[in-house]
Every structure is written in structure tokens, then in C-alpha cells.
Automatic annotation (TrEMBL):
This is DUF418 domain-containing protein. Pfam families: DUF418. PANTHER family: INNER MEMBRANE PROTEIN (PTHR30590:SF2). Residues 285-451 form the DUF418 domain. Keywords: Membrane, Transmembrane, Transmembrane helix. The keyword Disulfide bond does not apply. It comes from the Bacteria. It comes from Spirosoma arboris. InterPro entries: Bact_Transport_Assoc, DUF418. The chain crosses the membrane at residues 34-54, 74-100, 120-137, 157-178, 266-288, 300-319, 354-373, 379-402, 414-435.
Length: 470
């Protein structure tokens, strides 16, 4: 087994102790950095369509003829959709335990207080990513909030954390089923109005216009408006492309409603439960030594096969539900017993995330492609910088105040951009860490959290000296 550097962590009792200062290079867990790097690069596979194409045009791949772009999208949906973000969330949960395992600083500041400051600054960076860099699917803001609620859970045992994760996952599924049931009620009300109209026309065929009550009109208009909003609107699609190819202010005004919807109502209704379940699971996995390469090879092999087999089977089973919802929403509501893709999502992601992580750790143990693990470790060590770098590179490439390629590329061409960004981030991360302790934004985040300017260059002394916050 490849030896680990974090010898001060007792993974059996899982109450590790540290002096409260930023993690030094010598005490990092390389496998966590590698997995974080894989998850970070993998997230771009799902994010790139939202950067470069309208949601309506991507959905048209499902409604239209099933060519190469459709099969590429389907492959990504089954293998990676939400799975990489699930793994990223699990690792964030593991990071909560790592941070809170520290005792206190020389100034006497307790770890929970520093952790709250760390999360509050993450919320600020998330708002910058969403409202300044204009990435409307930002997760930093959400992670900042969720982390504050989760830090008391570090005292729970691994089994208790898994139980909590399952309960929260069931809440997520239940909320989507509740929403589905409400839509079903609206559809049934609409059907009653349609049946009433047909009955009156059959009795009095001369009456071309049937008079409805206000409630009946509302029931009919509500459903028809909802169905219309889910159909492809070529005019609206062109308007979106035109807005996204415009100047910064126009793009900002166009994206603001979506940013507000994602960071507020969607987060509190659904996103919160999704992230909490994965982070709790990540905390449990860390306590079992999963992320730090402590399991046996046979255990990782079993988890890789079992996790991917179960997770990918769930993804395949949920695909028809996912596509029918886009192709014919009325048929989806009227014929489905439950929204299978939404109900299975937290469990599909959990099994697949564990499966992918186990497979990566098995490959890492094999000792092959050491240059690749070094690159992925560097990307993971600078995940905060690289996540925001993806926002900068993609918005400048696609949006109108940059190169203006929004809506201009075919679906498959987006992944040439992904490959280029991966190469840039791998090379940049490795080169940067040859001279510096942290990524540039990791350094800023740590300095703001600790209230002291952290040493940046590898040749600098490790003890922070200069206070930058009163």
C-alpha cells in the first residue's frame, strides 16, 4: 500500500489533532488532492453546455433526431452527470473534519470560530463567482452556507453520519415527489376542464365558445402555460443567444434572474438537501479512511464494481424518465407513477461517486502514470483557484464581452474547449506549486480566514507574520 503522509490522524478513532495553522505540503493527504482534482475537472464536463449553449438547444438534442451529439450527451449523463459534483461534495465534507480537527492558534482562536470565518469568506467568493464572474450555477455560495450547518456533525460516528445522509437523501427524493404530486393535481384539474368543455360542445354543438368559471379558466391557463414554457421556443432561444453575445451589462441583466433563482429558491427547496446528504456521506467515508487510501485493495475493488454497477444501473433506469419529461411533459405527468430520475438521484450519485473514487484509488495504487497523479494532485490542491479559473476562462470564451462564442459551437465541439482547459489547469497547477505553497486564491482565502498574511513562496518561513485583518 502506498504510504500516507498524514501520520498524525488516527483514522480508527477519528479525532485527529493538529496545531491550528494552514495545512503544510508535508502533511497533505495526496489521495484527497487527487480525487478533488478529478472531481474538479470532471465537473466541467457537466458545466460546459451551460457556459456555451442555451438550455433549450441542449434539450433539442433529446427531442430531435438521435445523432452523435445526442449519444455523447447521453453517455455523459449516465457516466458523469452530477456524479463528479457528488464526489466534490463528499470531499468537502471530509475537509470539514480535517479543518475542525485542529485545536487552536497561538492567538487562542478556537477551530469552530475559524471555521465559521472560513465559510463566510467562501460565501463572499461564491457571490463574486455568481454576480461578478456571472457563473449562474455557482456552488461556492451554497457550500459556504451548508458547511456552517454541518460542522457540529463531526462528533457523530461514521455509521450515524451515513444514517443522516440516507435520511437527508430521502428528504430530497420526497421533496421532488411532493412537487411531482402537485403537478399531477394540476394536470388532473386541467383534464376535468377539458372534459367539461367537450361535454358542453357535445350537448350544444352550435356553441363554439364554452363559458368557464374563473377557477376553471385558471386551472386551464396554468397547465397550458406550464406545458408551453417547457417546449422549444426558437424566438426565445435566439433572444437568449443575442443577449449572451452582448456587453457585460446586458449579460448581467439577462442572467441575474437565473442567478437569484439558483442561489435562493432552488437552493433552499432542493439543492440544500442534495449537498448535505453528499457532505455527510463524505464525512463518514473519511472517518472510515476511504479517502486517505486506508482500505484494502479488495475492498476498493468491491466498492468500485458494486458502486459503479448500482449507480450506473440507476442512471440507465432513470434516463427514460429524464427524457420523457423534456419530450412530452403532459405524458410524463399523466403516465409516470413517480419522477424516477429525481427520486433516485441522491442514491445514484452516492453509489456512482464512491465507485468512481474507488476506481481512481485502485489505479493510483497500481503505480502507473505517476506524472498524471502528480498533475491531478496539483489541480486538487489548487481546486479553489481552478474552479474560479474555469468560470473566468469559459465566460471570456463564450460571453459577448469576451470572444462571443456563445451558441456558436456544436455540442461535441464544447469538449474540445474542455480538453484545452484541462491541459491549461494541469500545466498551470504543477508549475505554480513548484514555487508556491498554495494556489493564489487558496492563499487569499487562508489569509482572510486566519487574519494573517500567510507565507506564499516555498522559500518563506512557515510561520505567518503579517496581520492583514484588524
Amino acid at each position: 500500500m502506498i504510504s500516507q503522509t498524514l501520520s498524525s490522524v488516527d483514522l480508527a478513532g477519528m479525532e485527529p489533532k493538529f496545531n491550528l495553522q494552514p495545512v503544510a505540503q508535508a502533511t497533505r493527504i495526496q489521495t484527497i488532492d487527487i480525487l478533488r482534482g478529478v472531481a474538479l475537472l470532471g465537473i466541467l464536463l457537466m458545466n460546459i453546455p451551460a457556459f456555451g449553449l442555451t438550455e433549450a438547444s441542449v434539450q433539442e438534442l433529446i427531442r430531435g433526431p438521435h445523432g452523435g451529439n445526442y449519444w455523447l450527451k447521453t453517455l455523459i449523463y449516465i457516466l458523469f452527470e452530477n456524479k463528479m459534483r457528488a464526489l466534490f461534495s463528499m470531499l468537502f465534507g471530509a475537509g470539514i473534519i480535517l479543518f475542525l480537527a485542529k485545536s487552536r492558534t497561538g492567538s487562542g482562536m478556537a477551530a469552530p470560530e475559524l471555521f465559521i470565518r472560513r465559510q463566510l469568506w467562501l460565501i463572499v467568493f461564491g457571490l463574486i463567482n455568481a454576480l461578478v464572474l456571472l457563473w449562474h450555477y455557482d456552488i461556492l455560495f451554497d457550500y459556504g452556507i451548508v458547511g456552517i450547518f454541518l460542522f457540529p456533525f463531526k462528533r457523530l460516528s461514521a455509521k450515524a453520519l451515513v444514517l443522516c445522509a440516507v435520511v437527508v437523501g430521502l428528504i430530497y427524493s420526497g421533496k421532488y415527489y411532493w412537487d411531482f404530486a402537485e403537478q399531477k393535481q394540476k394536470y388532473e384539474k386541467y383534464q376535468k376542464v377539458v372534459a367539461f368543455e367537450k361535454k358542453l360542445k357535445a350537448v350544444k354543438p352550435a356553441n363554439k365558445k364554452v363559458k368557464l368559471t374563473d377557477d376553471q379558466k385558471e386551472d386551464k391557463e396554468t397547465w397550458e402555460g406550464m406545458v408551453k414554457s417547457k417546449k422549444y421556443d426558437k424566438k426565445a432561444d435566439k433572444a437568449t443567444i443575442l443577449a449572451m453575445r452582448s456587453d457585460y451589462v446586458t449579460v448581467w441583466n439577462h442572467l441575474l434572474p437565473q442567478i437569484q433563482r439558483m442561489e435562493a429558491p432552488f437552493f433552499y427547496q432542493f439543492g440544500l438537501w442534495d449537498m448535505v446528504s453528499m457532505m455527510l456521506l463524505g464525512m463518514a467515508l473519511f472517518k472510515w479512511g476511504f479517502f486517505s487510501n486506508k482500505l484494502t485493495t479488495s475492498q476498493y475493488a468491491l466498492l468500485a464494481v458494486g458502486g459503479l454497477l448500482i449507480g450506473q444501473t440507476m442512471a440507465w433506469l432513470s434516463l427514460p424518465s429524464h427524457e420523457l419529461k423534456i419530450i412530452d411533459y403532459s405524458k410524463f405527468i399523466s403516465t409516470s407513477i413517480l419522477p424516477l430520475d429525481d427520486v433516485l438521484m441522491p442514491f445514484e450519485r452516492a453509489f456512482s461517486g464512491i465507485g468512481w473514487a474507488s476506481l481512481i484509488l485502485l489505479l493510483y495504487r497500481s503505480g502507473i502514470a505517476q506524472w498524471l497523479w502528480k498533475g491531478l494532485s496539483a489541480v486538487g490542491q489548487m481546486a479553489f483557484t481552478n474552479y474560479l479559473m474555469q468560470s473566468v476562462l469559459c465566460t471570456l470564451f463564450f460571453y459577448g464581452y469576451g470572444l462571443g462564442y456563445y451558441g456558436d459551437l456544436k455540442f461535441y465541439q464544447l469538449y474540445f474547449v474542455v480538453a484545452e482547459i484541462w491541459l491549461i489547469q494541469l500545466v498551470f497547477s504543477v508549475a505554480w506549486l513548484q514555487f508556491f505553497r498554495f494556489g493564489p486564491l487558496e492563499w487569499l482565502w487562508r489569509s482572510l480566514t486566519y487574519g494573517e498574511r500567510q507565507p506564499m513562496r516555498l522559500t518563506q518561513p512557515a510561520t505567518p507574520k503579517t496581520s492583514i485583518l484588524a
